[in-house]
Structures are given as structure tokens and as C-alpha cells.
């Protein structure tokens, strides 16, 4: 993973996003819609908390025994004739891809939406190899044409309006189009159909790998993944190593949890369960199937009581849709392929460096993400733990550290605390007006830029307390 | 990286020995309140129809095989399609509609089919393994005479099924899939289809038929009454 | 019932009236109220910023202050949530403090939680003839799970006109140090909240956490939206006085 926005930080990127009214409106509109649909569908479904708990338990068990289930999964895959590649790093995965593409002498590749391929920048590498790659999910196609990255893990082109989409399509197809959804979609259908037919390789992600059968379960609404994996002669699956479920029965739970959480749909339009390449007497479906299983920082979370549960994530995007910060700044401001609360938690964990260290601060810790998460990942607690790590790493600003050391000193004893308040009371006089402060100075500036700040009154509650009790402890 | 090393990097931090069996499971699959719901043929039919049509699926029920054949003929006539593709004769058809398919000179899928011949079919006619009442889902397994192309490529997909093929839950269909794996005859592709292909990627405006079929029409023989 | 106040640093230093109101209500309900003066702050500003040692030292003041207390009541769902969810783990290294933390968590209540669950009182005889909207603060409602209690108390008030706040459960953008550190994002969030409050045409915004109310109130004031911001205890006490014919 590398940032798509140079070396800026989340604070600067957020400024940019906050100034973009269209973006914010589009994000509000879409996330609202997804939230309300989710609320409606889970309400109708009933027992949502029991389902969430079930989802959590299954994911917890799976990840706690991941080596076993991955072994079983890959043995079954191989028994069905698929090739399995184990990639410890992004480089390993790209290397495997390069070897397959070279062996096939591939010139053209079609892809269906996959976050893990975004994570390791598959498209970029394919282009470097001189291979023409086309995204086939409508939203991903739009994002690809505009040279951007997805800004939402479920709705990649959430930030684009129909005029912009029309312009992109006209430039790509050399034909005049209207801004009607129907026309734009028809253009995509025509154009992408040609791409499927010409492709040597189809690349998909994997929503769930089923250990007991060695199957890949893929969820789409458009039906593009089916064409991607069945039309070209080779099918490559990229999957994060955690994307496993033990049994088909477990898949039923997630076939309910995922679409309901992601888009508020009762059921996904297409769930494709692929178990190996085409059989001997079959005339369609990919002849070769390769499954590239990626670690890329994931195994580092295993055994860590604070963060192992991040691997329970099923990439539904529900946490983005309820996040007050995502709502204001959209996905690109996170500067990572994984935006929103899950991105703020996951990006620094997978990278383990300075990069993305500021993302855990882009949260008010309101806990809406946890409440929305279908597998109950305590994202808000993880964000605090990441801040703890950052503090422990010694890379925080000295002024901040000094401030909290002062807090410890002054608030660590009631006497000192009281003296502090008294001094602050006197210090605030020059900047206080009418009971409030508006001056943008020091650490207050972030607050007073948009809000009035109340001044400290003449007395504290504790100074008043003797009076309160004197005036009648009883039926006051 | 080789598999053993890769798995070791996982087992070790988890405090597990390579090859160690998994910890006992406390829960598997759906909660019992979901698995143990009562279900009758009539309730399954009603629920399937409600769900399926709720997803823009179209369904017609027939009391006899003959009526279903006539119905299929009507549907094809209404569509006015010139290029129809269908599963092969030996495919697992739920109802025999050979005479209709022959009349319409449908292109038939078989083990030696050149897929390209089907690239521009307008209508695909298939049967299915089963259909799911909870979600309005049609399940289609691939096979030598049951090419995936037949229902994935055209804009219109017609499914021939019997009411007795309805199961209540996704779980029942998935369990059957796992059992097929046990028996060694699991299909390479099991496709769970719930309504028409759709996308909301353009300003949240839902559009159908983006890549898969825009119309999904089920013709169901009511054999449960 | 003997009740100790955990007043919170923000009420102690800024919003005295909330402390006064809570004290008066508890007294009116027959509680014997005490204020252990060793308390300062729950340590949340430091804890949420990743400074655990600093948070622990400040949090210790509460363990000491409430050692002898039977029941502790606080006007903040957020600070009570801190004690409930994070104290046991924050003090896990010292067996003595760990036990004190667990004890404190077990006997500490947010005000509305205490009134409804412990005292089982939802009708305080209050009257408040105004249009009021309620903002449920995230920590109190989501993390502490106090969702319905404030509404139960509000519904017990006569002549009150309660109007639903659009996007009520959305965060106001306070988030402690987040409001200063990510000022622009926080500002965008609070503006949306303030606009939603204004859209209700309520005269009064009521809540259960002064951090959030200071945030929304600060925005309402800056943008000249004349809406009175009250803590639940303030509204209830004023209503009780009105209900008895005492001029508020
Ligand atoms: S963290 Fe939870 S809510 Fe967010 S994407 Fe993952 S599973 Fe969905």
C-alpha cells in the first residue's frame, strides 16, 4: 500500500475534501441511502444482534485456527485442480501474477472489483508489464477511466456525478452519450462485453473461501465477476489470507450478513460459488484457475489481543456509511485504499511504518462503526490502541507530550487541579468576551475556528459545595 | 513462499502447532431460530414468489407440463427473440420442454460447444438445481450440457423449475453443495441468482442489466398440490 | 440512599449549574448527597489520545475519592463509560487498584441511568412548556448503553413538546481532543448537527453530556441560532420548580 496523495497528511487532505461541496453532498446522499436501507432490511429480518454475534463467533473461531482452515482450503482447491500461490508480501503476489501472465502470454486482462488487488496495486503492475487491464464493475470502471482510486469500498465512484461519468465514457468510446443512467450503463455493457471476449485472463477477488470444499464465493450485483471468471481461459483469484470460512453452513450466515450490511439488500444478486476450474467435459468456464493468497502484514496481527479481530472484517463498508468523519471527508482524504473506520484501523497495521499513523486520529471515537459492524469489531477501541502505540513509539509532537504530562501533574491531585483552574480563570480574561472565547489561539484554535468556547466561571462546583449543603440537604 | 512456511507464520503467533486440529467449535452456521423455522410447500411457494418478484423477477405458475410448454412458447413469442440458447438435451431439466426448444431452433449447449457461438444469444433457457424461498434465489450448477454462458451472457434468462424444487433456506442449498463435494461430484460453478443484474454506481440510480440478464423469468410447474 | 457525586472536571470548572441541578434533584429524591473532594477527572482526554500512564494517574483520584462510597452518580455518560469499560483494564497491573477499579465500575451510574434503574423514578413532577429536542451522546447511548432512560425522564415532564432530532444518533463531532486536533472536520460535523437542531425549531436542546453540549452550543452561539442548550438535570430541575409554582 502506498498513499495515492503524495506525502500529505489526513488533515491536509481533509481540507481539500471539505471544500468540495459536490463530494460531500454525494457522500451524504449515498451513505444515507445505504444506512436506511440497512436499517430497514435488518429490521425486517429480525434478531439482528443474534446474527451479529453469530458472525463474530464464526469469524473469531476461523481466525483463531486459520492455519488449519487455510491448509484444508488449499488442499481442497488443489484436489479440484486449482493452483495455489502463497504470497507473504505484495511483491510475492505480483511476482506470482507476473509468472502466470507471462506463461499465458497474456495481453489483455479483465477484472472484477477486489479490494485486495487495490491494496497491492495490481493494475499498476499489469500496465508496467504492458498488459491492458479493464475493470468491469461499473463503479470501478468509472474510477479507472478517471485515473483515480475507489473512494468507498462498496461504491467506488461515490464521488462522481453523471456529467463527469458521461465525459469519461465519451472520451473512452469516442461516441456521444446522454447523461441518462440507462444510456451510460448500456455503453458500459457494450464496451465491457468486448473486453471480456478479448481477455486472456480474468482476475477476481474472493469474498469467502470455504475450507471444507475449497470453493471461492464471490458476491456481485452486476454479474460482472461471472463473465470475468468464465469467459477468459484463465481465472486468477486474489485473496487476503483471512478471507476463509470453515463450512458451507457458515456461508449462509455471511450470505445474510454481508449484503444486508453493505447495501441493505436482503440478498446479493449473484453469489457465485466456484469450486475449481472447468471439469473435463465442460465447454465453458476457465481452464486454469490460480489462487493467490496474500499475507502482506496480516499475520502480524495474529496473537495480538488488541488487533487480531481486525482480521474478522468482511469488507462490507457498513462502518464507512455511519462514520461522521467519512461523511464529511469521503474516502480519498484517508489516502489509503481502505478508507473510513476500518481503513483508519487497518492501514497503519498492515503497513507498520510511519505511513498512515495519523489516520487513527481522524475519529471522534463515537463508536458508530462498532455498532454497525456485522461482526462486532471494536474499531473505536482499536483506534485508541493505535494512538497508544504511536505515543509509545516516541514520534508524537513534543508539545503534545508536554501537555499530557502537565495534565498528569495538575489533574493528578485535587489541590493542584484547583490551583490550575484558578490560574486559568485569571489568564482567560484578556480573550474572554460576554462569557465566551472566540480568539483562535493555541490549542483552542481548532475549536474556536467555528465555535464559541465558554469561559471559566468565578467559582468551581467544589468551591460552591459547602454552600449547597448548607442551604439544606433534603427537600431543596 | 512455500505453503509450510506460510502456514507456520500463521500457526506460531496463534500458539498452534502446524497440523494441529482446530479448537472445538461452539457454533456452526445459522442460529437455531433460523434453522428450525416451520416450512410447508405452500409457504415456500408463497415466500419464493414474494421474494423473487420483489427482486424484479417474473414468475408464471403452471398446473401441468403441457401448460408450461405452451407458456414457454408464449413467452418466447412475446419476446420475439431470434437467437435463443438453451441447455443441452442431456442437461438436468426439471421439465421436458424439448419440443418447444426445437420449434424455436434454440442453440443447444453440449460438451463440445464453441462458446463463441453463444456470445450473442438474446435469450437463455435453463433449468436449475433448486430455488430458495427465503431469498427468491435460483441455484444453477454448471455441467457438460449446462454451460454457464447460457444464462450469463444474454439479456433475458428463462428458468424452468418445479415447485417441489423449492427449499426454504440458503443453508439447505449450501449443505447439498457440501455433500456433493463429499461425493466427489460438486459442480465447478454453483450460481446463486437473485433477480436481475443491477448497479447503483451512477449517482445511486439503480439500473438493471448491466452485465447479466435484465429480465429473469421463472416458469414453475406447480407439482406440490 | 447515600450518593456520592462524580461531578466531572468540565461541570466542576465550567458548568456549575449542572452540578447544582443534579444535587438538588438527588436531594429532592431523598438521597443523601456527598462530594468527595479528592476527585478531579476520569482521565479520558489522555486515555483517548493514547497516554495511558497519564490517564491512570489522573484516574486514580477517582479510585481514592470513591473508595468509601456506596453509589456514585455522574452527569456524564461519557465519563461513566470510561470507568465502566476502560478502568478495569487500565488498572489491571496493580491488583489493589484493579479491584478498586472494578468496584468503582460496579457502583457508578450516569444520572438518568441512576434515576430510572436504581431509583425507578421517571416522574419528578416537572412541568416544562417548551419545544425540546434531545441529542443522545454517543458514549452514553452507544458504549454505556443508556439509550432510553433520558427519554423516559423527559416523557415524564408535563407540557413538554418533544420533537425528534433528525440524525439524532449521529456524533456531534466533539470527540474530546479530536475537536481541537481535527478542528476542520469536527467543525463540519458540528455544523451539520447544529443545522439539524435548528431545523426542529426547538427552543431547547437537551442532552446528557456537557462536552457534546458545549460543542453544539458553541456552534449554535457562533452562528446566532438562539436555541437554549440544557443538560437533562437543568431541564428537570427547572421543570420541578415550575411544577411546584416556584419561579425558575
Ligand atoms: S470493520 Fe466491520 S463494518 Fe467495517 S467493513 Fe469490516 S466488517 Fe464491515
Automatic annotation (TrEMBL), chain A:
Iron-sulfur found in the keyword field:
yes
Q: Name one GO biological process term.
A: lactate metabolic process
List residues of the 4Fe-4S ferredoxin-type domain: 303-334
Q: Name one Pfam family in it.
A: LutB_C
Tagged with keyword Iron-sulfur: yes
Which UniProt keyword terms apply here? 4Fe-4S, Electron transport, Iron, Iron-sulfur, Metal-binding, Repeat, Transport
Q: Which NCBIfam families match?
A: LutB/LldF family L-lactate oxidation iron-sulfur protein
The name of this protein is Iron-sulfur cluster-binding protein
> Which species does the entry assign this protein to?
Alicyclobacillus hesperidum
From TrEMBL, chain B:
Query: What are the residue boundaries of the LUD domain, all occurrences included?
Result: 48-219
Instruction: Please give the superkingdom of this protein's source.
Output: Bacteria
Q: Name one Pfam family in it.
A: LUD_dom
Q: What is this protein called?
A: L-lactate dehydrogenase complex protein LldG
TrEMBL record, chain C:
A cellular-component GO term for this protein? cytosol
Highest taxon listed in the record's lineage: Bacteria
Q: Name one GO molecular function term.
A: oxidoreductase activity
Which InterPro entries does the protein's record reference? Cys_rich_dom
Domain Cysteine-rich stretches: 3-83, 132-216
Q: What PANTHER family has UniProt attached to this entry?
A: LACTATE UTILIZATION PROTEIN A, UNCHARACTERIZED PROTEIN YKGE
Designated name of the protein: L-lactate dehydrogenase complex protein LldE
Amino acid at each position: 500500500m502506498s498513499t495515492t496523495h503524495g506525502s500529505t497528511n489526513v488533515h491536509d487532505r481533509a481540507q481539500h475534501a471539505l471544500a468540495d461541496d459536490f463530494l460531500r453532498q454525494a457522500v451524504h446522499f449515498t451513505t444515507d441511502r445505504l444506512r436506511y436501507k440497512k436499517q430497514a432490511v435488518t429490521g425486517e429480518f429480525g434478531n439482528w444482534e443474534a446474527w451479529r454475534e453469530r458472525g463474530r463467533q464464526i469469524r473469531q473461531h476461523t481466525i483463531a485456527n486459520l492455519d488449519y482452515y487455510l491448509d484444508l482450503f488449499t488442499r481442497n482447491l488443489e484436489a479440484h485442480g486449482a493452483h495455489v500461490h502463497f504470497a507473504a508480501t505484495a511483491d510475492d503476489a505480483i511476482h506470482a501474477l507476473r509468472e502466470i501472465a507471462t506463461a499465458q502470454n497474456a495481453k489483455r486482462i479483465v477484472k472484477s472489483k477486489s479490494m485486495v488487488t487495490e491494496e497491492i496495486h495490481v493494475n499498476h503492475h499489469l500496465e508496467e508489464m504492458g498488459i491492458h487491464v479493464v475493470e468491469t464493475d461499473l463503479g470501478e470502471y468509472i474510477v479507472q477511466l478517471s485515473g483515480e482510486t475507489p473512494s468507498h469500498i462498496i461504491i467506488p465512484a461515490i464521488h462522481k456525478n453523471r456529467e463527469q461519468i458521461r465525459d469519461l465514457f465519451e472520451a473512452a468510446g469516442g461516441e456521444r452519450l446522454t447523461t441518462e443512467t440507462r444510456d451510460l450503463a448500456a455503453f458500459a455493457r457494450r464496451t465491457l462485453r468486448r473486453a471480456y471476449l478479448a481477455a486472456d485472463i480474468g482476475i477476481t477477488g474472493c469474498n469467502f473461501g470455504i475450507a471444507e470444499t475449497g470453493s471461492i464465493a464471490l458476491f456481485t450485483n452486476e454479474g460482472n465477476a461471472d463473465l470475468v471468471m468464465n469467459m477468459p481461459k484463465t481465472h486468477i483469484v486474489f485473496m487476503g489470507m483471512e478471507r476463509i470460512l470453515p463450512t458451507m453452513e457458515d456461508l449462509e450466515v455471511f450470505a445474510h450478513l454481508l449484503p444486508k450490511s453493505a447495501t441493505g439488500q436482503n440478498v446479493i444478486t449473484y453469489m457465485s460459488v466456484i469450486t475449481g476450474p472447468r471439469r473435463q467435459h465442460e465447454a465453458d468456464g476457465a481452464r486454469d484457475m490460480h489462487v493467490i493468497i496474500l499475507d502482506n502484514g496480516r499475520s502480524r496481527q495474529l496473537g495480538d489481543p488488541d488487533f487480531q479481530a481486525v482480521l474478522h472484517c468482511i469488507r462490507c463498508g457498513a462502518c464507512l456509511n455511519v462514520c461522521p468523519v467519512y461523511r464529511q471527508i469521503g474516502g480519498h482524504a484517508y489516502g489509503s485504499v481502505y478508507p473510513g473506520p476500518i481503513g483508519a484501523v487497518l492501514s497503519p497495521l498492515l503497513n507498520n511504518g510511519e505511513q498512515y499513523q495519523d489516520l487513527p486520529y481522524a475519529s471522534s471515537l463515537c463508536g458508530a462503526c462498532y455498532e454497525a459492524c456485522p461482526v462486532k469489531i471494536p474499531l473505536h477501541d482499536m483506534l485508541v490502541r493505535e494512538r497508544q502505540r504511536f505515543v509509545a513509539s516516541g514520534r508524537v509532537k513534543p508539545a503534545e507530550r508536554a501537555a499530557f504530562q502537565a495534565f498528569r501533574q495538575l489533574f493528578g491531585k485535587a489541590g493542584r487541579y484547583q490551583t490550575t483552574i484558578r490560574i486559568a480563570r485569571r489568564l482567560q480574561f484578556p480573550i474572554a468576551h460576554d462569557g465566551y472565547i472566540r480568539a483562535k489561539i493555541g490549542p483552542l484554535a481548532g475549536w474556536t475556528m467555528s465555535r464559541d468556547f465558554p469561559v471559566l466561571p468565578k467559582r468551581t462546583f467544589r468551591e460552591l459545595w459547602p454552600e449547597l449543603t448548607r442551604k439544606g440537604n433534603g427537600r431543596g | 513462499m512455500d505453503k509450510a512456511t506460510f502456514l507456520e507464520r500463521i500457526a506460531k503467533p496463534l500458539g498452534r502447532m502446524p497440523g494441529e486440529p482446530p479448537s472445538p467449535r461452539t457454533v456452526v452456521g445459522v442460529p437455531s431460530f433460523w434453522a428450525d423455522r416451520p416450512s410447508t410447500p405452500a409457504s415456500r411457494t408463497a415466500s419464493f414468489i414474494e421474494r423473487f418478484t420483489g427482486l424484479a423477477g417474473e414468475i408464471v405458475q403452471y398446473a401441468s407440463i403441457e401448460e408450461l410448454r405452451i407458456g414457454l412458447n408464449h413467452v418466447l413469442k412475446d419476446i420475439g427473440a431470434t437467437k435463443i440458447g438453451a441447455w443441452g438435451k442431456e442437461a438436468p431439466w426439471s421439465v421436458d420442454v424439448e419440443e418447444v426448444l426445437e420449434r424455436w431452433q434454440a442453440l443447444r449447449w453440449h460438451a463440445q460447444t464453441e462458446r463463441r457461438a453463444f456470445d450473442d444469444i438474446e435469450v437463455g433457457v435453463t433449468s436449475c438445481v433448486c430455488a430458495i424461498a427465503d431469498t427468491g434465489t435460483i441455484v444453477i450448477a454448471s455441467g457438460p450440457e449446462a454451460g454457464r454462458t447460457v444464462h450469463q451472457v444474454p439479456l433475458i434468462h428463462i428458468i424452468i423449475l418445479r415447485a417441489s424444487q423449492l427449499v426454504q433456506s440458503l443453508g439447505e442449498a449450501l449443505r447439498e453443495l457440501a455433500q456433493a463435494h463429499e461425493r466427489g461430484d460438486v459442480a465447478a460453478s454453483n450460481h446463486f441468482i437473485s433477480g436481475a443484474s443491477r448497479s447503483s454506481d451512477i449517482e445511486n440510480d439503480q439500473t438493471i442489466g448491466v452485465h447479466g440478464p435484465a429480465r429473469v423469468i421463472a416458469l414453475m410447474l406447480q407439482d406440490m398440490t | 440512599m447515600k450518593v456520592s457525586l462524580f461531578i466531572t472536571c468540565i461541570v466542576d470548572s465550567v458548568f456549575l449549574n449542572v452540578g447544582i441541578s443534579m444535587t438538588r434533584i438527588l436531594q429532592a429524591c431523598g438521597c443523601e448527597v456527598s462530594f468527595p473532594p479528592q476527585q478531579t477527572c476520569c482521565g479520558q482526554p489522555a486515555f483517548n489520545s493514547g497516554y495511558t500512564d497519564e490517564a491512570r494517574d489522573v484516574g486514580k483520584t477517582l479510585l481514592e475519592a470513591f473508595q468509601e462510597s456506596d453509589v456514585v452518580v455522574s452527569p456524564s455518560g461519557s465519563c461513566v463509560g470510561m470507568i465502566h469499560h476502560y478502568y478495569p483494564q487500565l488498572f489491571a497491573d496493580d491488583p489493589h487498584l484493579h479491584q478498586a477499579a472494578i468496584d468503582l465500575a460496579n457502583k457508578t451510574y450516569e444520572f438518568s441511568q441512576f434515576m430510572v434503574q436504581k431509583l425507578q423514578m421517571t416522574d419528578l413532577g416537572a412541568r416544562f412548556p417548551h419545544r425540546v429536542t434531545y441529542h443522545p451522546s454517543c458514549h452514553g447511548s452507544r458504549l454505556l448503553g443508556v439509550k432510553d432512560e433520558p427519554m423516559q425522564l423527559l416523557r415524564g415532564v408535563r407540557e413538554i413538546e418533544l420533537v425528534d432530532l433528525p440524525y439524532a444518533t449521529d456524533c456531534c463531532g466533539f470527540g474530546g481532543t479530536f475537536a481541537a486536533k481535527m478542528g476542520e472536520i469536527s467543525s463540519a460535523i458540528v455544523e451539520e448537527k447544529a443545522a439539524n437542531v435548528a431545523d426542529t425549531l426547538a427552543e431547547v436542546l437537551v442532552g446528557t453530556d456537557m462536552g457534546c453540549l458545549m460543542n453544539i452550543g458553541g456552534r449554535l452561539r457562533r452562528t446566532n441560532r438562539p436555541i437554549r442548550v440544557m443538560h437533562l438535570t437543568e431541564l428537570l430541575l427547572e421543570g420541578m420548580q415550575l411544577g411546584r409554582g416556584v419561579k425558575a
